[in-house]
């Protein structure tokens, strides 16, 4: 019974991760196309931090950038998202070679 509960919890966690990853991709798409609202941009960076795709230092850099009146947050977020994507792809590539 305990194994069944653990398995069910793992499935729920995997679905949440998949949903968050899909949401991150969707929000990045909107940011790249300059159609994301300010709330969506904030949601994107929060999800990136929650899912540990970015470090606390990167998150704080975003916070500092967002306070500047002339900064283009969209470009910053796209750059950050691309850096994370490349890192993830490289990580997966090295994992598959082991």
Tell me about this structure.
- This protein has helices at 2-32, 38-50, 56-67, 73-97.
- The chain is globular.
- Helix content is 83%, strand content 0%.
- It has 98 residues and is mainly alpha-helical.
- The model is unreliable at 9-14 (pLDDT under 50).
Number of helices: 4
H/E series: HHHH
How many distinct beta strands? 0
Mean pLDDT: 74
Rounded to the nearest angstrom, the distance between the terminal CA atoms is 35 Å
Low-pLDDT stretches are 9-14
Structural class comes to mainly alpha
Main sheet overview: none
Categorize the overall geometry: globular
Q: Which range best describes the helical content: under 10%, 10-25%, 25-40%, 40-55%, 55-70% or over 70%?
A: over 70%
Instruction: Specify Rg, calculated over alpha carbons.
Output: 16 Å
Q: Give the percentage of residues in beta strands.
A: under 5%
Can you describe this structure in just a few lines?
The protein is an all-alpha fold. It has 4 helices and no strands. It is globular and about 40 Å long.
Please tag this protein with its features.
single chain, about 100 residues, mainly alpha, 4 helices, about 85% helix
What is the fold's blueprint, element by element?
Elements: H1 2-32, H2 38-50, H3 56-67, H4 73-97
């Amino acid at each position: 019974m305990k194994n069944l509960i653990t398995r069910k919890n793992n499935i729920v966690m995997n679905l949440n991760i998949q949903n968050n990853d899909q949401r991150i991709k969707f929000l990045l798409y909107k940011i790249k196309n300059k159609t994301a609202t300010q709330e969506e941009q904030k949601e994107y960076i929060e999800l990136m931090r929650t899912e540990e795709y970015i470090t606390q230092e990167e998150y704080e850099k975003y916070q500092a950038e967002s306070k500047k009146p002339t900064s283009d947050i969209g470009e910053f977020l796209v750059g950050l998202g691309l850096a994370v994507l490349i890192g993830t792809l490289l990580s997966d590539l090295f994992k598959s070679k082991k």
